[in-house]
Amino acid sequence: MCGLFGTRGHPEVASSVIKGLQDLSYRGYDSWGIALQSGQELHVVRDIGLVPESPQLPTISSSLAIGHTRWSTHGEPTIANAHPHTSVDGKIAVVHNGIINNYQSLKDSLPHISFKSDTDTEVVAHLLDEACKGGLSLTEALRQVASRLSGRFALLVIDSRDDCLLAYRQGSPVVAGTDGTRQWIASDTFALSRCCEEGIYLEDEQLLVADATGMHLYNGSGESIPIHAEPISSQSSAHKKEGYDHFMRQEMDEQAAVIHRTTQAWDREQPLLPMPFVQNLKRIIILGCGTSWHAGLVAEYWLENLAKIPVEVEYASEFRYRDPLIYSNDCIIAISQSGETADTNAAVSVAKEKGATVIALCNTPGSTLTRMADTVCPTHAGMEIGVASTKAFTTQLTVLYQIALWLAERKNLLNSNSCDEKHLALRQVPEAVKKALKADSEIKAIAADYQHHNNALYLGRGLHFPIALEGALKLKEVSYVHAEGYPAAEMKHGPIALIDEEMPVVVIAIQDHTYEKVLANIAEIKARRGKVIAIGLAGDEHLRSQCDHMIAVPALPTELLPFVTVVPLQLLAYHIAVYRDCNIDKPRNLAKSVTVE
Ligand code: F6R
């Protein structure tokens, strides 16, 4: 995790780094720091918490600086553990994203140094210092030290005696840009987009040097290699809370528009996969984490029912470590909002090494995942700032449904008329989502009643089981209430023991083929005095009579109902979290992009 930002060659380096770190705070926000070079000295400022709007910085002139916003891995979020970390003489400063797996043995090789932090990063500053004292240039020292580090990481380095900014990538993203004289290096293009129009994406084992002569790129053997810059789109304008108290709430309201945009952007004729591959396609493996994994679970139903292709949905983190069997006629669909989730990207690498074809569903153009995939299907959610994913999830569903239709049509399982009808039905979703959002004040009132409960159970069946998981995840993340999602029928196999008058149970009870069974589950909960909040179709008065509260969602074709059943669960989590006075957009211990395994 963590965000890195460095810049050189202009007098506004301090404010540029601070703005960059603010843009990168979605990657971690428990502490931050900056190192400014001035008059052969480094001035380091570090603090705990989020990067402030206008931090107190020394009034010095500087044209070289690096900064960091942290999500703790090794060592608590304290000032001592905040980056930048420096060599003993304070001449070399390092910021780091990722994990250095062998940091302990490297630390043990420096018994004469008294370490000031518990981080895996500080050792890099000391190793660089030793290498430079041994006669190496800073660039050669970084190349050699980096080759001794194991793990996935990105580093930015400066030295008080050199007017140059160094970056190294091994698994964690680094992108650089220049306007000829000024140079910037960051963890993502979002932070860079306010500075320059083109980005240089580093590959693994590449080292970039920015100095007064320009940018220079080197491979792992230290050979100079050509620089290739790509256009980056400006994304900063999306970064405003338009009259809302929280981004999460704003992003829920944006769902109708972004689902619409995602359907508009879909090209039904696109060559998603080569036709011979589709004809031999035997299995789809969907990879993702958290909310993205939940979207995959919904898609499993669509892909199996519409395209008749067996689907396995896997936690990316588990997939990669169990030596999975992958065949040349398997297709991987990797789902990620950020495109920088370490577990997902590592799982995709494993799949690619074994010869799989990879489709990436991603909301972040230019991210690592999009650069690894054979085909990219963008989700057009726009920048999602709230750490708890809402609009990214529903746009993922939109693309996944369209992929299922694409495959069904290519396999002649849907003729073009039926396919047209299904695409038309999908176009009704934005209006239905808008209607579902109108239950806001009713849900707020329910949230007021349940704000003090510390546990909740979420139940659903079929397509709505993943939605129950998603509802429980939303509540956990933003309100710190313990919540679990279960397939409704599983309740009697254990979780029913939890039910008493203190246990709210959110049940998705849609009039489909499992409806009667779900009603029976509701009766079982009521018989044990549990409190039932049901999500049902508008007009279902029988359901209303069976539960304590019912939140109605508008009708849609059955297979599209997850788009609307998730909305009240997002709102419920949000309002409970507001009542509990939680940090809605930046919940404790989380980060928007989980770039460590
Ligand atoms: C939940 C949430 C996380 C992410 C997960 C994967 O609200 O945001 O569970 O879904 O960390 O992130 P991406 O989709 O960026 O790979």
Description:
This protein has 597 residues and is α/β, with parallel strands linked by helices. It folds into 3 domains: 3-234, Aminohydrolase, N-terminal nucleophile (Ntn) domain (Glutamine Phosphoribosylpyrophosphate, subunit 1, domain 1), CATH 3.60.20; 241-427, Glucose-6-phosphate isomerase like protein, domain 1 (Rossmann fold), CATH 3.40.50.10490; 438-584, Glucose-6-phosphate isomerase like protein, domain 1 (Rossmann fold, 3-Layer(aba) Sandwich). The protein has 20 helices and 25 strands. The strands form 4 sheets. An 8-stranded antiparallel sheet has the order 3-2-4-1-10-9-11-15. A 7-stranded antiparallel sheet has the order 5-6-7-8-12-13-14. Strands 17-16-18-19-20 form a 5-stranded parallel sheet, with helices on both faces. α7 packs antiparallel against α15, α9 (290-307) runs parallel beside α13 and α15 (429-437) runs parallel beside α20. The termini are close together. The model has no long low-confidence stretch (mean pLDDT 95).
> Which compounds are bound in this model?
fructose -6-phosphate
- Average the pLDDT over all residues and give the rounded result: 95
User: What's the multimeric state?
Assistant: single chain
The DSSP helix count reads: 20
- Structural class based on helices, strands and sheet pairing: alpha/beta
Low-confidence stretches: none
Largest sheet: 8 strands, antiparallel
Please report the distance between the alpha carbons of the first and last residues. 9 Å
CATH architecture of the largest domain: 4-Layer Sandwich
Task: Categorize the overall geometry.
Answer: globular
According to CATH, what is the topology of the largest domain? Glutamine Phosphoribosylpyrophosphate, subunit 1, domain 1
The CATH class of the largest domain turns out to be Alpha Beta
